[in-house]
Amino acid sequence: MSLDVSPTLLEKAERGEVDDAEFVACVRESLPYAWEVITTVIADLEVTKDGFADHETPPPSEAERGQLLRALASDAIRGGLERHFGVKLAFQNCHRVGAFRPAADGTVDTDRYRAFISPRGQLLNQSPELRDC
């Protein structure tokens, strides 16, 4: 199970009444390492001028790696975090998280974003140490 869902929140979900704030709170409580990485990247983004920040440090254990994978591989979780923080998140390998500041219309169409999510960017971010991450 990737999220620790309280009985109350589960009941709300069964009735269709879950809002983003409740969902994001569940993510924050269930995936503390992923939350820490993402909030750190968001804080870094707030102080950059070029609309981009990233986190490249591999997780300290497989448990933390699993949290990050669950948070960013799930469209619902990643989307909830993006809406909550007003950013676009991107993911490479098993640990590199990029945060991008979207334009007023909500899109991200910058050279840096396109490079980050490109096949070339993925290939250039490979190393033997990360082969089995």
Structure in words:
This protein is mainly alpha-helical. The chain has one domain (32-130). It is 54% helix and 11% strand. The protein contains seven helices and three strands. It has helices at residues 7-15, 20-30, 32-47, 62-73, 75-85, 111-117, 119-124, and strands at residues 52-55, 88-92, 96-100. A three-stranded antiparallel sheet has the order 1-3-2, sandwiched between helices. A hairpin with a 3-residue loop joins strand 2 and strand 3. Helix 2 (20-30) packs across helix 5 and helix 3 crosses helix 4. It is globular.
Draw up the topology in text.
Blueprint: H1 7-15, H2 20-30, H3 32-47, E1 52-55, H4 62-73, H5 75-85, E2 88-92, E3 96-100, H6 111-117, H7 119-124
Antiparallel strand pairs: 1-3, 2-3
Helix pairs in contact: 2-5, 3-4
